Amino acid sequence: MFSLLYGLWEYVFRKEELRVLILGLDKAGKTTLLEKLKELCTGEPGLDPQSIVPTVGLNVGRLEAHHALLLFWDLGGAAGLRSIWDKYYADSHALIYVVDSTRPARFEEARGALFKALGSRELFGVPLLVLANKQDLQDAQPPEAMQQMLGLDDLKQTFRVQDVSALTGDGLRAGLQWLVDQIRKSDRAVLLRQRN
Ligand SMILES: Nc1nc2c(ncn2[C@@H]2O[C@H](COP(=O)(O)OP(=O)(O)O)[C@@H](O)[C@H]2O)c(=O)[nH]1
Ligand SMILES: [Mg+2]
């Protein structure tokens, strides 16, 4: 009897793990973002930004926020490393795409890599949070300009552009809250639940 009730309790209150893929070009600020998210969610300081080195493989972060267990995958963004991105598509509930707002010269490359990913069948309907990063720097483009320059108005799925600084943490809580809300509303979450 106890185990039956416990099983029911676990079923009702168990927190579902939501998997979030973090993509973007190299040096966009993905790893700095993940470390800052860890700090915001746990209260413990993340890695010192000075000690973050370019990501070759994968960084993983497991965090609890907004009543959800979140598993983040931060993949290397250098051109030669982007070929492994698609191994993670099918299992992701949501996508965070990080862009360096101070580098207009790379917006076209960032747009190309994003649309290539979104063109994959395995990312169909994925909620997308685009982070216009490095807003602490003076020459950062505002999010409206980024939305236009990245051609996001052509997108079919739910998306939001959030101005953030991965270094200071500004804007990250609002972005994450939006993403978790969107995951909960998305048909994709239902599909992934059925598959697991
Ligand atoms: N000023 C500023 N620098 C940042 C920010 N985010 C990342 N950086 C810097 O950008 C560089 C690349 O960051 P990193 O997290 O390694 O980028 P990744 O290749 O996308 O993982 C590092 O020197 C970071 O300190 C930010 O929000 N503001
Ligand atoms: Mg990195």
UniProtKB/TrEMBL annotation:
Pfam families: Arf. Mg(2+) binds at T31, T55. One of its GO terms (cellular component) is Golgi apparatus. This is ADP-ribosylation factor-related protein 1. It comes from Coccomyxa viridis. GTP binds at G24, L25, D26, K27, A28, G29, K30, T31, G77, N133, K134, Q135, D136. InterPro entries: P-loop_NTPase, Small_GTP-bd, Small_GTPase_ARF, Small_GTPase_ARF/SAR. The keyword Lipid metabolism does not apply. One of its GO terms (biological process) is protein localization to Golgi apparatus. PROSITE patterns: ARF (PS51417). Signal peptide: none annotated. Belongs to the small GTPase superfamily. Arf family. GO terms for molecular function: GTP binding; GTPase activity; metal ion binding. The keyword Ribosomal protein does not apply. Keywords: ER-Golgi transport, GTP-binding, Lipoprotein, Magnesium, Metal-binding, Myristate, Nucleotide-binding, Transport.
